[in-house]
């Protein structure tokens, strides 16, 4: 069976831990392309998160001619985690000025999975409108909002809950988080 292939974009919002955990899981069994914006690199450093060293193909954000920027290159989906309000706005308006936004644009036009893990709070009317526009274009909007029904004990448990939901939508098997089975389960 051929390996699944995914693109992971990391943009300039807090939450590099989500990207790292997603890469830890995806890079085990899939072919992964990684694009990290300059601001995301700065924030990851500030948050103490290392996004390097994975068995993945790393692309420069300016590499607009990369194969993943073409609809003829087939892959199973893309996740932008975290997805900044700026990147959300660019995707919602079709402004594909770098490899992350161009690849997301390709995902949407080709009707592939395109998951935006937004990380902003509170939301302005503009953010909400951009989320709706991206959703209507085919993106899945997944704000980084972990649940607490699994009674998390550490930050990693909260990260795993969000990343687990992303993996569910990518149809990637995992055991990162406890699934809801009722109050008495």
The helix fraction, in percent, is 25-40%
What is the overall number of helices? 6
Overall mean pLDDT stands at 95
Radius of gyration (CA) equals 16 Å
Strand order of the largest sheet: 3-2-1-4-5-6
What is the number of beta strands?
6
Q: Estimate the strand proportion.
A: 15-25%
Order of helices and strands: EHEHEEHHEHEH
Describe, in plain words, how this protein is organized in 3D.
- It contains six helices and six strands.
- By secondary structure, it is of the alpha/beta class.
- It has a six-stranded parallel β-sheet, with helices on both faces.
- Helix 1 packs across helix 6 and helix 3 crosses helix 5.
- The model has no long low-confidence stretch (mean pLDDT 95).
Keywords, please?
16% strand, globular, single chain, alpha/beta, six-stranded parallel sheet, 6 helices, 185 residues
Q: Would you spell out the secondary-structure blueprint of this structure?
A:
Blueprint: E1 5-10, H1 16-29, E2 31-36, H2 38-47, E3 57-59, E4 77-83, H3 85-93, H4 99-109, E5 113-118, H5 125-136, E6 140-141, H6 155-170
Helix pairs in contact: 1-6, 3-5
Brief rundown of the structure:
It is built from six helices and six strands. Strands 3-2-1-4-5-6 form a six-stranded parallel beta sheet, sandwiched between helices. It is α/β, with parallel strands linked by helices.
């Amino acid at each position: 069976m051929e390996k699944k292939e995914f693109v992971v974009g990391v943009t300039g919002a807090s939450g590099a831990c989500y990207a790292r955990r997603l890469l830890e899981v995806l890079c085990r069994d899939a072919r992964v392309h990684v694009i990290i914006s300059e601001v995301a690199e700065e924030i990851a450093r500030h948050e103490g998160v290392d996004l390097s060293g994975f068995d993945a193909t790393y692309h420069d954000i300016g590499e607009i001619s990369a194969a993943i920027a073409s609809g003829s290159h087939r892959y199973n989906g893309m996740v932008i985690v975290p997805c900044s309000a700026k990147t959300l706005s660019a995707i919602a308006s079709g402004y594909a000025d770098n490899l992350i936004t161009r690849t997301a644009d390709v995902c949407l036009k080709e009707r592939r999975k395109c998951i935006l893990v937004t990380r902003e709070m509170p939301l302005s009317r503009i953010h909400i409108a951009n989320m709706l526009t991206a959703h209507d274009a085919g993106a899945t909007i997944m704000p980084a909002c972990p649940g607490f029904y699994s009674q998390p004990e550490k930050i990693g448990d909260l990260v795993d809950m969000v990343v687990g939901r992303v993996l569910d939508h990518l149809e990637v098997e995992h055991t990162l988080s406890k699934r809801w089975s009722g109050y008495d389960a």
